[in-house]
Amino acid sequence: MAKIFAVVIVLIAIASAIPIIMHTWPLPQDISVHGHLIDEQFTDTMAEAGISFLASQILLAFFIFKFSSPKPGDKIKSFPGGASGLVIAAFLLVGTECLALGVFGVKAWASVYLTPPAADAIPVQVQAGQFAFYFRYPGPDGKFGPIHPDQINEANANFFGIDTTHDQDAKDDIVTAEMAIPVNKEIHLLMHSKDVGHSFYVPELRVQQDFVPGLDVSIHFTATKVGKYEIVCTQLCGLGHYNMKAYLEVKSQDDYDAWIKQQAALQ
Amino acid sequence: MHDMSAHATQHGAPTSFIRKHVFSIDHKVIGKQYYALALVAAVVGMFLSWLMRIHLGWGNFAIPGLHLLSSTGAPGDVMTPEYYLQLMTMHGTIMVFFVLTTAPFAAFGNFFLPIQTGAEDMPFPHFNMMSFWVTFVAFLVMVAAFFVPDGPTLGGWTQYAPLSAVGAVGGPGQGLGVVLWAASIGIFCIGQLLGSLNFITTTLDMRCKGMSLMRLPLSAWGWFITSIMGLTAFAVLMPACILLILDHVAGTSFFVPSNLVINGQILPHSGGSTLLWQHLFWFFGHPEVYIAIVPGMGIVSHVLITNMRRPMLSHRVLIYSMGALAVLSYMVYGHHMFVSGMNPVSSIAFSFPTLVITIPSTIVVLIWLGSLYGSKLRINSASLFALGFISMFISGGVSGFFLAQPSLDIMIHATYFVVGHFHLVMGVAAMFGIFAGTYFWFPKMTGRMMNETLGKAHFILSFIGAYCIFMPFHYLGMAGNVRRYQAFTDDYLIPLIPVHKFITIAALFTGFVQLIFIYNLIYSRFKGPHAPNDNPWEGTSLEWSTATPPPHNNFGDKMPVVYHDPYQYSVEGASADYIMQTSPEKISSPDEEK
Questions:
Q1: Into how many domains does chain B fold?
Q2: Which of A262, B98, B303, B361 could disulfide-link B386, Cβ–Cβ 3.0 to 4.6 Å?
Q3: What is the pLDDT averaged over residues B228-255?
């Protein structure tokens, strides 16, 4: 039984590693400027975690295989170096690994969260509500009109509760159900929740950020590949959570300009 | 060390059925009651997971009879989206609280901590009785949610605000369902606080003559460290639950900010903080992971040592490592909140201790592996599950490297990667710890032996099955598969559905394998062969030096006196392969801890 078990451990360890090595289910393609930092960090972490995983599982299997059928008269042997050696090894190996991962990981994190958006970043506001995203562009004046929660009216398509009659800044605001952005231009995404917690996740963009009801947060990113991608909600928000999504279209500058003009005309 | 047992816990053996088996103050009966409760909860939790997995694999499949559970949640026996979330919430809650906390800590700890410390009982036996019955009531309140209009809450076991705090307007089960959930968990906390108080006092004040702290077995250390965590973690969760209930019934706004609009109406709340709930919840929630796993570490170490016929390479290092895990567990909770909207600088601050916590975890694993080296390993159901625990703990642990880093969390937060990680490291590993403890201590608890052939079959099939379920979760997560979805309609998720089908088949298979265990447990309880003697595994700690099953006051007329460290195996020059803690035989061991 022990020998079967040892072989099963090794087989499972190898079988677990194969899809990773073969990239059977790879990370989604990266379409962002900062994404390569995350992907490199992911690969480094996978290498370190993978080696730790395989080495310790195989060692476990080997010891079970070797020491489970002692002969009468066998004596207990001590691991070379004893506990102190193992403790030192853990501190040196894992400690160094932790420090390296932690320090290098900060770089990727900082590129998303600890740098301010560029001065010419295009502001886009996204509002999450059960169970849809809506997007708002500030129009030619570059300013968003204030949100009046009491004026939110989905029947009139006033999803944000903007007052175009009285608020000057709101008059040219453009509200859409899909998000379009120009390629290679930084976007400053201002995130507002209408009701409960939601999240903005575009795997290809290497962006995931929760909406915090009562607290507007923002992130910034630059998309590098033209295409259509899905925006999905990752924070449990109610019965329609699984179906809460929108599309992000990354367009060429010309296509984007035409699109925003067309959307402005529809308001 | 004080010998308080003589005056603190003396209570005569009960005579009536009610006082003996129902409202008992005997820690052993209470331990068995906790075990029975955990077993029922595990069956319920596993059944819920089957329903979820069938739905995830084949969404339109009509599960015969499901409408009997909820006519609105499963019209025509097909699960609605909201009912999926309700079952998911109950699965997570029942498993985390009523199985993973209850069985390894409260069940085995109650039965064996006083015996392993050499006490007659716990110092506050009535509190102990109360702790079980309060937990039982908590379970009834939790399950009652299935039978109220709208059913249980759908907000997930984490109950993030404001979805959990806005009331029925938030969705089915978000009114009364949440109140029942919060009430149940609040009551559960009281039970755990009472239990923790007893465990701590038993360990510190009730040890018998000669039992220094370092002479306590590792299982006792696991329970002791866990009880300290329990006392502090549940003390935070309980008030959080009270505040959540107040937001529902008293018009307060602890977790609801102003100007939220649901169904076209502005909610009558203002001034609350949604992140406050997350801070309070995870300040409990992360230590809870260790509350589930540290007792397992102790049990597995104890079982392995007996079956390796040698002590661990270092008794102290294992104890210090478990202690370090406990301390660090409070400093890392923010890694659940990297993308929550809290200050991104605090994410870095939470990231480092999260990475550092891998050091004591690695030390524990290396000590286990290093101790296996050169041992005389006995293979039986208990030792197999203990070894399986190590394998699962390694597999679940290495994925922690990813989740400790905020930059990677951007990709895998709220995906199946997280689900795979915590199921392996705190779910399956803790369950394997429970199984190891069950096969090992069953003779002492019941006086009968479990069937070893069935036990080994149960082990190897569970081991393979668990990996088939939870390893693919990681691949799904890397491909961006979001968790808590009842169906996968997004373009990029559709190609992943075959993986979900595979997982569902594996889950059903592994679930059925557990029936072997339940049969073995129940059959052996009544018809199993009698334990050949009081010490069938040739163990050294105090539970093996008393009768089987132990008498009402644990040790009969004569209280034990301890002469040795807990694990004197294969001592050179000794008269036998093992020397019990109560044996006055003189030995000269360089490892003897005073």
A1: 1
A2: B303
A3: 96
Is the Cβ–Cβ distance between B248 and B167 less than 8 Å?
yes
User: Quick one: which of B80, B95, B71, B248 has its CA closest to B146?
Assistant: B71
Q: How confident is the model at residue B573 (pLDDT cuts 50, 70, 90)?
A: confident
B538 in Cβ contact with B577 (< 8 Å): yes
In this complex, which of B81, B261, B355 lies closest to A242 when CB atoms are compared? B81
Q: What CATH number did the domain enclosing B472 receive?
A: 1.20.210.10
Nearest to A239 among B85, B395, B480 (CB): B85
Percent helix, strand and coil across chain B, each rounded to 5? 65, 0, 35
B92 lies in a domain? yes
What's the confidence (pLDDT) of residue B586?
A: 82
For residue range A181-239, list pLDDT tens digits in order: 999 999 999 999 999 999 999 999 999 999 999 999 999 999 999 999 999 999 999 99
Q: Contact B491/A230, CB-based, under 8 Å?
A: yes
For residue A68, give the chain B residue with the closest CA.
B377
B405: chain A residues, CB-CB within 8 Å? 41, 45, 101-102, 105, 109
Residue B563 lies in a domain: yes
Q: Do B309 and A37 touch (CB under 8 A)?
A: no
How much is the ipTM here? 0.96
Q: Which residue has the tokens 């507002």?
A: A192
Pick the residue with more confidence: A198 or B593? A198
Provide the residue range defining the domain that includes B304.
36-257+270-579
**Which residues in chain B have Cβ-Cβ distances shorter than 8 Å to A2?**
377, 379
Å from B82 to nearest chain A CA? 5
Task: Confirm or reject CATH 3.90.226.10 for domain A122-266, answering yes or no.
Answer: no
Q: Which residues of B touch A64 (CB under 8 A)?
A: 372, 377, 387
Q: Which residue of A has its CA nearest to B355?
A: A98
For position A209, what pLDDT does the model report?
Answer: 97
Tokens of B214: 């370092």
Nearest CA to B136 out of B30, B3, B51 is that of B30
Cross-chain residue pair B163–A52, CB shorter than 8 Å:
no
Q: How close A169 comes to chain B (CA, Å)?
A: 21
Report pTM: 0.95
Whether residue B402 lies within 8 A of chain A, CB to CB, comes out as yes
Are residues A242 and B488, on separate chains, in Cβ contact within 8 Å? yes
Residues 6+ apart with CB under 8 A from A190: A123, A124, A125, A126, A144, A216, A218
CA B312 to chain centre: 24
Using the beta-carbon criterion (under 8 Å), do B344 and A201 form an inter-chain contact? no
CA dihedral A248, A249, A253, A258 (to 10 degrees): -110
One-character DSSP codes across chain A: -HHHHHHHHHHHHHHHHHHHHTTSSPPPPP-BSSHHHHHHHHHHHHHHHHHHHHHHHHHHHHHHHHHSSPPTT----PPTTHHHHHHHHIIIIIHHHHHHHHHHHHHHHHHHHTSPPPTTPEEEEEEEETTEEEEEE-TTTT-PPPP-GGG-BGGGTBSS---TTT-GGGTT-EEESSEEEETTSEEEEEEEESSS-EEEEEGGGTEEEEEBTTB-EEEEEEB-S-EEEEEE--S--STTGGG-EEEEEEE-HHHHHHHHHHHHHH-
B395 touches chain A (CB under 8 A): yes
Residue of A77, A99, A112 with shortest CB distance to B374: A77
Which residues on A lie below 8 Å from B463 (Cβ)?
5, 8
Subunit contact B341:A63, Cβ cutoff 8 A: no
- Where are the domains positioned within chain A? 2-68+83-113, 122-266
Residue B28 forms part of a structural domain: no
Residue in B with minimal Cα distance to A113: B344
Contact B488 A245 (CB under 8 A): no
How many helices, marked H, and strands, marked E, lie in chain B?
Answer: 20, 4
